[in-house]
Amino acid sequence: MIGIAYTQGPRREILAPVDTRALLSLATVAETGSFSRAASALGFTQSAVSQHVAGLERTAGTPLLTRRPTVAPTPAGREFLRHARQILAHEQAARAAVARVTGRDEDTPVSMAVTPGTEHLVPVAGLLAAVVVDDAAGAAAALSSGRADVAVVDGIAAPGDPLPGSGPDLVVRVVTEAPIGVLLPASHPLAGRDAIDLTTLTDARWLDTTGTSCSTSDLASAARLRLRRGTTYTGTSTDAVTSLVRAGHGLHAAPATGYAPPAGLAIVPLRAPRLVHRTEVRVHAPARAAVLALADAVGAAS
Question: Where is the signal peptide, in residue numbers (predicted)?
Fold first, then answer.
């Protein structure tokens, strides 16, 4: 139960506590677009879900969802949901932390979250309950909430800078780290260069990717540069990326060492800015023996 506070004049008043089940009902209705589907997904009655949402709307003093013609968040509802999801995530993280400290999860199978570029590091060790493939933020959220015991993430950063989702309560082990290069067709005029500055390629066309290893979004963010986007690719397949680059649809980032470019492609290392592609395995501290064993297996698989 969480108290919702608001200010009226010089006084600060505390409204009735909000049950986190009501926040969960609101979030699920918003995600499914239906009170009945939300009730089915949560195991609540539809009447209970309706009462939860109505109670939150009374607390907020404004409608949070439209009912007709479709069920969807209002502008106020979108803002309310942003905070509600953070509260629910913190509650999940708290429950997971208690389970780790008290040893209540000692006998449960180990689960793992991996980013799209790291699936090959999932060891066949008979320890996994599930493998969640997501982006770095999603893998970090799975680890924080307790949906995963181990997270393997990769991304682009300056040497020594942390990847997104790092935290003081995590044990982070670097699995691989390689300088970043530019993946381009072998026939490209720059393919024979020893190195290149990224600033000279801001007007070149780059594949518009977000979910791939070494995605253009990660590269632009780490380099603090705006890159001209070409063809959009929303998948995670490395083979699809190399095919698109080979066909001239745009450039893409790739590790400059430890990665052999496929036929018809070349990699030119970046001279500036200095960036690396890093793969990390993360676990919470403290972690049970089975979790640490899996983290060690990931390191060995590299």
Answer: none
Which of these, 232, 251, 234, lies nearest to 242 by C-alpha position? 251
Tens of pLDDT, residues 135-147: 777 887 888 788 8
Which residue spans of the chain are classified as CATH 1.10.10.10?
2-102
Quickly list DSSP for 34-72: -HHHHHHHHT--HHHHHHHHHHHHHHHTS--EE-SSS-E
Strands 196-197 and 150-157: unpaired
For residue 31, give both structure tokens.
């995600």
- CATH 3.40.190.290 in the chain is located at 108-302
Q: CA angle, 78 as apex, 17 and 136 as ends, to 5°?
A: 100
Q: Which fold, 108-302?
A: D-Maltodextrin-Binding Protein; domain 2 (3.40.190)
Q: What does the alpha-carbon distance between residue 97 and residue 220 come to, in Å, rounded to a whole number?
A: 34
- Options 3.90.550.10, 3.40.190.10, 1.10.357.10, 1.10.10.10; CATH for 2-102 is 1.10.10.10
Beta-carbon count within 10 A of 3 CB: 9
Return d(Cα 294, Cα 302) in angstroms, integer: 13
Q: What's the whole-model pTM score?
A: 0.69
Place of tokens 């253009």: 216
H or E element in which residue 4 lies? strand 2-8
Q: Higher pLDDT residue, 160 or 100?
A: 160
Nearest Cα residue to 15 out of 59, 52, 56, 68:
59
